[in-house]
Amino acid sequence: ATASRPAEEEVSSDSETESPLLGRRRREAAEEEVEETPQEKKLRLAKQYLEELRQLEEERAEEEEELEPADLIGNRLKEDVLEQKGRLQRLVAKDVQPPDPARIRVLRGHQLPVTCLVISPDDRFIFSASKDGSLIKWEVDSGKRLCVVPGGKKGTEERHMGHASHVLCMAISSDGKYLATGDRNKLIMIWDAATCKRLHIFTGHRDAVSGLSFRKGTHQLYSASHDRCVKVWDVGENAYVETLFGHQDIITGLDSLSRECCVTAGGRDGTVRLWKIPEESQLVFSGHQGSIDCIQLINEEHMVSGADDGSLALWGLTKKKPLVLARQAHGEQDAQGLQQPYWISAVAALRNSDLLATGSHSGSVKLWKSGEGFRKLEHLLDIPLVGFVNSLKFSAAGDFLVAGIGQEHRLGRWWRIKEAKNSICIIPLKQKTTASSPESPGSS
């Protein structure tokens, strides 16, 4: 009964009467907690955090045999502070070499174009979805399909386990527990990422769900839709929280990190927006000429976006205009005798680093290096891939990049590339070793 009702109408658990036994247990638990003062709790948690860090860094030191564990803990704490401030920028782009095309793995399983994908936080699994409504869990090492949830026919939503329309977006929680998928039929489905068992359906959006992101370190989920609004959900509690309004056109993409805010791309309204959830306020950024189709946060203070005018923009959250704008980032195509830029259909950023990737239907994925202070964009190399690149994700460790390829664009059917394969491509990013010469082979 609750599945057919809008999420906003779901009965809140606050309205249930509490049994005397449960009340007594709660009071006893509260009394036990009182024995520890706030200062003692802070100290205990700090000690626990440092101990966990020490163990992690000792394990890493054993592998690398370089620094003392004490130095490693200090470095790690410095990195954590910089990450929170949005100033951490690991310089990894200079070490990336062009991948050997023979080592790019192509995984086939979806009948129609792949529209979205995510990588599990431990880099062991990839989840992908398609216009055929199917959902697949892949093992990275073997390339095997561990789980397939097929798409259903239109109108079979009540009986069918999975989606019965195009899946447009997906997100995975930072602990790897929950997977969320959103479709053209206004539904958000929540899955157990380990078993691919469906847990909940969230309803409430009035049009296609086009963007999803879990807030890092929590089970709070942000969703964006073609109905122009952003909704906030608590997946752990199976609850709807609130709705935010502001965009003047369909929202095409959304991302978030650990702060209580998210960023969205507003399609043809030409704006990127930062939503501050507690303050119920938003910041509006503008700089692209065309429809802004994809967005990704690089760190807590910077983001990258791509548009159908072929431009790629780097933003700082303190400036309303792009810090740098690369026009016609994928070059131009001849469409019906007119020269038009290739649309940027996907962007990816290796978190807290200077390495970016962009996808289009230009025949290649491009890797970019963002310069000091995110004020420069330097093209590094091209990775040949035929088809529409509808989704791009770096592994957490940065040692591979995954592309979701389709014969058509994620949001429509403007063109079709017949020779493209609807697939997942795993692209190894070989880091240069210090022993090798600084001269890298010419990019293809």
From TrEMBL:
Localization of this protein: Nucleus, Nucleolus
Any one of the GO CC terms: small-subunit processome
Domain of life: Eukaryota
Gene3D superfamilies the record matches: YVTN repeat-like/Quinoprotein amine dehydrogenase
Residue ranges of WD repeats: 107-148, 160-201, 202-243, 244-285, 285-325
Pfam family, one: WD40
Transmembrane segments: none
Keywords carried by this UniProt record: Acetylation, Isopeptide bond, Methylation, Nucleus, Phosphoprotein, Repeat, Ribonucleoprotein, RNA-binding, rRNA processing, Ubl conjugation, WD repeat
Swiss-Prot/TrEMBL GO biological process terms: rRNA processing
Region (Disordered): 1-41
UniProt record similarity statement: Belongs to the WD repeat RRP9 family.
Known function: Component of a nucleolar small nuclear ribonucleoprotein particle (snoRNP) thought to participate in the processing and modification of pre-ribosomal RNA (pre-rRNA). Part of the small subunit (SSU) processome, first precursor of the small eukaryotic ribosomal subunit. During the assembly of the SSU processome in the nucleolus, many ribosome biogenesis factors, an RNA chaperone and ribosomal proteins associate with the nascent pre-rRNA and work in concert to generate RNA folding, modifications, rearrangements and cleavage as well as targeted degradation of pre-ribosomal RNA by the RNA exosome.
The protein, known as: U3 small nucleolar RNA-interacting protein 2
Species, as recorded: Sylvia borin (Garden warbler)
Lineage: Eukaryota, Metazoa, Chordata, Craniata, Vertebrata
Gene from which the chain derives: Rrp9
